[in-house]
Design goal:
Blueprint: H1 6-13, H2 18-44, H3 59-84, H4 89-113, H5 140-176, H6 180-190, H7 197-230, H8 242-268, H9 277-307, H10 311-322, H11 326-338, H12 352-374, H13 393-416, H14 422-438
Helix pairs in contact: 2-13, 3-4, 3-7, 3-8, 3-12, 4-5, 4-8, 4-13, 5-6, 5-7, 7-8, 8-9, 8-12, 9-10, 9-11, 10-11, 11-12
């Protein structure tokens, strides 16, 4: 193994320090909260949520759309870097793919739990039931099944295929240290990798193929969410611009999470050499650009909604943006569009104290946007006697629990696996040496 990548392998092989154990304990405590919230739901039913007529959806759809947006943006970012073979992929691809996979796992809870009878989730699967009744393919529940299944399969393959050469490196490194049990564990998932030309040829072809599959997946998963909105009777949810709005506004959340992870990993695992200031600079600029794109989407929504839509749709938008829903709407605009613009300042783009909160706030702003769509988009619909939506403690527990699960998965990833692609680093090192020889 090249001496350049030794610190990356050592970071995964050494025991976690006190900071890691404290963070993991806190995250696992949140996972316990998730287990309690899910158990209460299974025993008592979805009546423990704050949903009512007409707010039949609440945190369940908000969080589902939010997690899918994070996963799609992180996957898209990593896939584009692989396809274009951009130098930034060496620094950030590995944990961007891990963040996408962890977000998909968190999102997968919601389509099952908001069924009301999650133990009957298999009814949405396309299988030839002995009763002769097939699933209703016109139902959004079946769309959810296909969307989540495709996302889990493609994202898992993308992440795992990229890991295979590094798992073999970790296998050899652990064996050299006499840690044979750990070496066997890495070797099991390395699938017999020996680094032959045939192995490399197949690996690179498969890696680029799966990266290409991620691009239509982005449109598929986010469009399914928008189609679920369109099947309802809410006027503002029938607009053709909604799928594009969900995709574009989701970009700052996924890229913001990747930026926050880059800042944390540089410090926690001493990876400043691998995720350097130039990488942080470019990643921060991408977040700021994604925020500008989200701002253009908001501006388009307001311009078209106020000037060209029918009276009912216009009234719903006015209620969201200037009425009861204004705090969530403009809060989302502030956090998603305005706050990331501080990253245009050169001195702040590589400071953990700046980029970490900015990335997390951008993600929080997208959550507020989903609240604005799901909850405040209905303020024109209720009957006079209808109750307002107030999330219950069970819903907060489910949301915070999935956040804790996301953090737990990323902590385990950072501790057990190389956070930076070692084979890509060695490849760049070889190319640099070849260029030096030519000169």
């Amino acid at each position: 193994m090249s001496a350049t990548t030794t610190p990356v392998a050592d970071a995964a092989l050494r025991p976690g320090g006190a900071g890691f154990r404290i963070a993991l304990a806190g995250a696992l405590a949140g996972v316990v909260v998730l287990a309690i919230a899910v158990s209460a739901l299974l025993v008592l039913g979805i009546g423990i949520w704050g949903n009512n007529v007409p707010h039949v959806w609440g945190f369940d759809l908000i969080a589902y759309a939010w997690w899918i947006g994070i996963a799609n943006a992180a996957s898209l970012f990593a896939a584009v870097l692989v396809i274009r073979r951009h130098g930034l992929r060496t620094a950030v691809n590995r944990f961007a793919e891990a963040a996408a996979l962890a977000a998909v796992v968190a999102a997968a809870f919601y389509p099952i739990l908001h069924l009301g009878r999650p133990w009957l989730a298999h009814w949405t699967f396309p299988y030839p039931a002995h009763t002769g009744l097939w699933p209703q393919f016109g139902s959004p529940l079946v769309w959810d099944f296909w969307g989540i299944t495709a996302h889990v399969v493609v994202t898992s393959l993308f992440w795992f295929i990229g890991l295979i050469p590094d798992l073999a490196t970790m296998r050899d490194r652990a064996a050299a240290r006499g840690r044979m049990t750990v070496a066997r564990a890495y070797g099991l998932f390395a699938l017999g990798w020996r680094g032959s030309l045939a192995h490399w040829h197949r690996h690179q072809a498969a890696y680029r193929l799966v990266a290409a599959l991620v691009l239509p997946l982005l449109l598929w998963a986010q469009t399914v969410v928008a189609l679920e909105f369109a099947t309802t009777l809410v006027p503002a949810w029938h607009q053709a611009r909604l799928p594009l709005h969900v995709i574009v506004t989701g970009l700052p959340s996924g890229l913001g999470i990747v930026l926050a992870l880059a800042a944390v990993l540089r410090v926690a695992l001493s990876l400043e050499r691998f995720v350097d200031e130039e990488d942080m600079d470019l990643l921060a600029r991408l977040v700021a650009c994604a925020a500008l794109a989200a701002g253009a989407s908001y501006a388009h929504e307001l311009a078209v909604g106020l000037l060209r839509e029918d009276a009912e749709t216009r009234a719903a938008l006015v209620a969201r943006a200037f009425g009861v829903g204004a705090p969530a709407y403009w809060g989302g605009v502030l956090l998603t569009v305005v706050v990331p613009q501080v990253l245009w300042r050169d001195a702040w783009r590589d400071r953990c104290a700046v980029v970490l909160p900015v990335g997390l706030l951008a993600a929080a702003g997208v959550w507020l946007d989903r609240w604005s769509l799901v909850v405040d988009g209905l303020v024109r619909m209720p009957r006079p006697e209808a109750a307002a939506y107030h999330p219950s403690a069970a819903e907060w527990g489910l949301l915070l629990g999935t956040v804790a699960l996301f953090v737990t998965l990323l902590l385990l990833f950072g501790r057990l696996l190389p956070a930076v692609s070692m084979f890509e680093t060695r490849h760049e090192e070889s190319e640099a040496e070849a260029e030096e020889e030519e000169r």
